[in-house]
Amino acid sequence: KYHEKNETPNTPAISLIWALDVQLDEFFKEGLTKRFARHASMAKTARAWAKKNFAVFAEEGFESVTLTCIRNTRKIDVSAMNSFLKKKGYVISNGYGKLKGETFRVAHMGEIRPPELRKVLGLMAKAVKEQSK
């Protein structure tokens, strides 16, 4: 019925449509090949950090290019680490469901750049060191 009247069945999320438009402009300005390469490079950096300090949760060959899920092998308090990071302007995600506290996730996608990822990984290392005392 709505289609026949050239209307939407509910209020469209206009702000999300505008955000998508802006983000698509950013994609094509950077170039998709370069963007994909940046994400792959940051994934490699995040996985190397995870392997050095903890362990990567995903089986080898099944890792994400946009997010690294880290197995909390050192049994740190992920919420405490996140509180520390928030004070510095960063945030990571705890595992969810049965994996809460057992894993945590670091995103490396979108507008995140390599220097920013390296900074958050450095801050995470500092938070881990503080908890190990």
Physical arrangement of strands within the biggest beta sheet: 1-2-4-3
Please report the number of helical segments. Answer: 4
- List low-confidence stretches: none
Radius of gyration: 19 Å
Tell me the major beta sheet: 4 strands, antiparallel
What is the string of helix and strand elements? HHEEHEEH
Mean of residue pLDDT values: 95
Total strands: the figure is 4
The structure class reads: alpha+beta
Shape: globular
N-end to C-end Cα span: 65 Å
Please indicate the percent range of residues in DSSP E strands (runs of 2 or more). 5-15%
Share of residues in helices: 40-55%
What does this structure look like?
Helices cover 51% and strands 11% of the residues. By secondary structure, it is α+β, with helices and mostly antiparallel strands. Helix 2 (32-53) runs parallel beside helix 4 (114-132) and helix 3 crosses helix 4 (114-132). The chain starts with 13 loop residues before the first helix and ends with a helix. The mean pLDDT is 95.
Write a concise synopsis of the structure shown.
This protein is α+β, with helices and mostly antiparallel strands and 133 residues long.
Keywords:
133 residues; 4-stranded antiparallel sheet; globular
Task: Record the SSE blueprint.
Blueprint: H1 14-30, H2 32-53, E1 55-56, E2 67-71, H3 78-87, E3 93-94, E4 103-107, H4 114-132
Antiparallel strand pairs: 1-2, 2-4, 3-4
Helix pairs in contact: 2-4, 3-4
